[in-house]
Specification:
By secondary structure, the protein is mainly α. It contains four helices and two strands, in the order αβααβα. It has a two-stranded antiparallel sheet with strand order 1-2.
Length: 137
Amino acid sequence: MMISPWDGGTRLYEMALDVRSAIHEVIASNVANEETPGYQAQFLPFHKALESAIQGAFPLEPIRTDPQHLTSVGDSDQMVQFAKPVKTGGGPDGNTVNLEKEMTRMGENTLLYMAVSQFLGGRFQGWRAAIMEGRQG
């Protein structure tokens, strides 16, 4: 895990944004594979992923499951590999993607990502106000 120059609270917001970004990638992959026969939809639970991020449980290098896959760097890319398959609601072709559920999850995740980024932005605005006030004094 990369060492952050931020305090603990800011680092927590940073990790929450990384997890939300990873969840978005998992949902986008599910939507992209809606019609792929045999594709198992994936789910990345926020609380477990955040807890793992806090504990530094994500490896430095993602696991490549196919030699044609590109390697990636970054916290959210490393978290995606920990998504669990959804085993319910499969169709006759074995695909378990439910487009309506995925789009609902995408909307919810987007709203939560925006909320966390606004909290983080407010934190930066508070620091800026304190710095500006210190310059005037």
